[in-house]
Amino acid sequence: MTNTPTPHVGAKLGEIANTVLMPGDPLRAKFIAENFLEDVVQFNTVRNMFGYTGTYKGKRISVMGGGMGMPSIGIYSYELFNFYNVENIIRIGTAGSLSEKVQLRDVVIGLGASTNSNYAMQYNLPGTFAPIASYELVRDAANVAAEKNINAVVGNILSSDTFYCADKTANEKWISMGILAVEMEAAALYMNAAEAGKKALCLLTISDCPLTGESLSAEERQNSFTQMMEIALEIAK
């Protein structure tokens, strides 16, 4: 008896590549497959969380939506790591800037992912776990960004369980600790990778700046995200 297909991924073993690019939006996964990959085969439609496998410059790569929030990406990344032999997951998403160091359209490479989530409670650890990315993927992403003259900043991000937070002082507290940007998935991804002995990275494009009220239009977001996608595709193994 095999563990595939899983309740959330309809693929058979072998249909998913070693590296999966994971945007939150399944339609963005479709956009990447149609615009960057060749010889594309769709491996998942369950819950409309589209997944595709194809090639990029001769490399076999998969791309699949991961949904919003840590419970969602937690399910998908767990099944990919543990049931489909996926070795690397690169989250490619959006974030809000919490630092003057990162502006609209900049790329943030999430070296670490602080969080207000209780996701780590399941491990019953005798202390506080620090979710971090794969150094190899961080290094490669920074090098590719430099080669392509893409403004990319490496540092600590916040993975938040709340999009609308009742504590209106929360951002100020995270800013005081040097957090670059806020998103909602990376910490769970990093923890799943650590437990499975696999590699993970979160690449983010700054789509809005809560401190100034600036934000990108839908068209501007799509154009800006192309740089982040190119970094992820180049470092995929």
TrEMBL record:
Keyword Transferase: yes
Enzyme Commission numbers on file: 2.4.2.1
GO process terms (BP): purine nucleoside metabolic process; uridine catabolic process
GO cellular component: cytosol
Keywords of this entry: Glycosyltransferase, Transferase
Enzyme class label: transferase
Signal sequence extent: none
Record: active site: 208 (proton donor)
MF-aspect GO terms: purine-nucleoside phosphorylase activity; uridine phosphorylase activity
Residue ranges of every copy of the Nucleoside phosphorylase domain listed in the record: 20-235
UniProt cross-references to InterPro entries, sorted A to Z: DeoD-type, Nucleoside_phosphorylase_CS, Nucleoside_phosphorylase_d, Nucleoside_phosphorylase_sf
Residues reported in the UniProt entry to bind a purine D-ribonucleoside: 8, 183-185, 207-208
Cross-referenced PROSITE patterns: PNP_UDP_1 (PS01232)
Coiled-coil region(s): none
Site note Important for catalytic activity, residues: 221
Binding site for phosphate: 24, 28, 47, 91-94
NCBIfam families: deoD, PRK05819.1, PRK13374.1
Family from the record: Belongs to the PNP/UDP phosphorylase family.
Function: Catalyzes the reversible phosphorolytic breakdown of the N-glycosidic bond in the beta-(deoxy)ribonucleoside molecules, with the formation of the corresponding free purine bases and pentose-1-phosphate.
Name assigned to this protein: Purine nucleoside phosphorylase DeoD-type
The organism of origin for this protein: Clostridium neonatale
